[in-house]
Design goal:
By secondary structure, this protein is mainly alpha-helical. The protein contains 18 helices and no strands. Helix 1 (about 1-20) packs antiparallel against helix 2 (about 25-60).
Length: about 425
């Protein structure tokens, strides 16, 4: 899971590094203002993919393979249909959407060049990402990891060829991304059409069953809502940055986001690995093992977030230099931005893992609230309020403010939950025969 998440993070990092070196800060800003739409695409992929994955797991557990295959067929039709609708909307409203997401007249041409190709290829990430989740659901996480590695590796190889070799600039970065996503989608489809998968793709299952579609959508709604909210956050953030710092501040945010995502993604991988262990032992009432798994995951996540924090605090200029080495103004702006934004990162690993703990023990509402507290509920108000008093530094400070507030809230909630867990363990021990 960690390898898969790192591969996913590479898409953002690699694109921005090569665009920054070839096109400059406005290119990075163009990707940053395009990102809210890409998050919307990912949100719909999660809506169908994660919902279908849960249903597939349930049906396989009930030994109902035919029904699981029906879920797979309906998921493919939903993914393609939604992607085509989003493609039409994106192409028809490309410029208005980009302005809504924070693009200035200077950045707009760069963003249009990039996002237009991404929108044309919307079906590819929808199918690849959505069905890759189903591969995990049928019990083949290594194939799912390989799918992400293929996409990330191909994107990394094609980026310099398309951007520098062919001289395509922004369009080259987008073309490399879409090509890699298309190959990943074909790989996933070949898995289900070939002989390696447990579930098979049959034409008869491509006919939509509305009750089944409703179940997929209902189950997939929590991650969909979170990513949709994150898209709104990015749009708000871009607009605040444009007001208080101009286009160069959006470029700096593009770098900050890529670096922070690269640090956070392996922590999300730890979550994916810990969740079934915590859930299984919680269901089996092995509460000591629940605590041990939680502690191990928190320590590992804290080690990663602290290492990322130290790297950024010690070498901030070198990190910014990776993305662009020719613009002193970007270096001057990006260096303090990185340090301020990632100021609270040593505690971020604890917050992410602890919020996921509630998901693992069957309390998704708690998990969603705690996850949204960091990414949306505290961050959006901070982004809107702090710049009024501190200008651009207030925008940067919104991120550590939300990290601190959400960590305190999560810590309090987790302490109460662990006390309750300890009481249950004591009761269980007392009931055991001497």
């Amino acid at each position: 899971a960690i390898v898969g998440m790192m591969a996913q993070a590479l898409y953002n990092v690699v694109d921005r590094i090569f665009v920054g070196q070839a096109v400059g800060p406005m290119g990075i800003a163009g990707i940053a203002v395009s990102f809210p739409f890409m998050l919307i695409l990912m949100a719909f992929g999660m809506l169908v993919g994660f919902g279908a994955t849960a249903l597939v797991s349930l049906r396989l557990g009930e030994k109902k393979q035919e029904e699981a295959e029906r879920v797979l067929g309906n998921a493919i039709v939903l993914l393609v249909g939604i992607a085509l609708v989003l493609t039409a909307i994106g192409l028809a409203l490309l410029s208005p959407l980009l302005k809504l997401f924070g693009a200035s007249e200077q950045v707009l041409p760069y963003a249009r060049s990039y996002l237009q190709i991404i929108v044309f290829g919307s079906v590819c990430p929808a199918v690849g990402f959505g069905l890759n989740a189903v591969i995990r659901g049928e019990g083949n996480p290594r194939i799912a990891m390989l799918t992400m590695l293929i996409g990330a590796g191909l994107n990394t190889v094609l980026d310099p060829i398309f951007i520098f070799g062919f001289g395509w600039g922004m369009r080259g970065a987008a073309a490399a991304t879409v090509t890699a996503q298309a190959v990943s989608a074909l790989w996933v489809l070949s898995y289900f059409l070939g002989g390696r998968s447990l579930l098979k793709l049959h034409a008869r299952n491509l006919r939509l069953r509305w009750s089944l579609c409703a179940s997929i959508v209902i189950i997939g709604s929590p991650p969909f809502a979170m990513h949709l909210a994150f898209s709104v956050l990015n749009a708000v953030l871009n607009n605040q940055l444009r007001v208080y710092g101009g286009d160069l501040a959006i470029s700096a945010w593009g770098i900050v986001f890529a670096v922070s995502a690269f640090i956070v993604m392996p922590i999300i991988g730890i979550n994916q690995g810990a969740q079934p262990i915590i859930g299984y032992n919680y269901g089996a009432r092995n509460f000591d093992r629940v605590k041990k798994a939680l502690q191990t995951a928190i320590l590992a996540a804290t080690a990663i977030s602290s290492a990322g924090f130290l790297l950024v605090m010690v070498f901030p200029a070198q990190v910014v230099w990776l993305f662009n080495r020719d613009n002193p103004a970007l270096l001057q702006l990006g260096t303090p931005a990185l340090r301020i934004c990632l100021m609270m990162f040593p505690i971020v690993g604890f917050q992410i893992v602890s919020a996921n703990y509630f998901q693992a023990i069957g309390k998704p509402k708690h998990a969603m609230l705690l996850s949204l507290s960091r990414q949306v509920l505290l961050l959006i108000p901070a982004v809107l309020i702090l710049p009024r008093f501190f200008g651009l530094n207030g925008v940067w400070a919104a991120m550590p403010t939300a990290d601190l507030g959400s960590s305190l809230l999560t810590g309090l909630w987790l302490a109460l939950e662990l006390r309750r867990l300890g009481n249950r363990h004591a009761e269980q021990t007392a009931e055991e025969p001497k």
